[in-house]
Amino acid sequence: MKLKEQFKKIDKEFGAYVHHTIQEMMEFYQASVDTNLDGCLVECGVYQGIGTAKFSLVAEEVNKKLYAFDSFEGIPENTEPHDKNIWGNPARFHKGDFCAGLEEATENLKRFGRPERVEFIKGWFDETLPKFKKPISVIYLDVDLAESTETCLKYLWPLLQKGGILLSQDGHLPLVIKVFEKFAKENNVIVHGLGKQKLVKIIK
Prior knowledge:
6-stranded mixed sheet, alpha/beta
């Protein structure tokens, strides 16, 4: 069965709201194929592990390991003044939002994915990411906060191989857009789709 059909099947069997679209998952797959680089796959922001399960199928397809980072305590305490996204819809993130435990994510991975391809790394990003030193080929961020995005960029971008791809599902959030605008200027890169769509892409 082709990956796109597998993703659709997972969504149907899961039977609850899925926070990633099929197209976003396919973008991750295409990036993983296109890079064809040494290095692992990285996901930041796991929630219930449905995206992780799909990414594990991609990891199987390209013969790579996926490292999935999350606090498993939901959104951290923050004072970021989120209000609306680029389409005018409410965008607010409170402490504990999107909280799902490691056990739930693990069970969903076992049910829908390839657990042998995945290593969960539990903890806040500013505690876990500085310890991670593996070369990376593709990064997928779904972290909502500007501060979390900054932390991920700070520690993961240096590990991303030349020609590697970073995807963020938060390109529709004004505070995150500001982070990427600053990052793009400082690193002389283009953030494709920034301010126009939810999923944005940087090629290193």
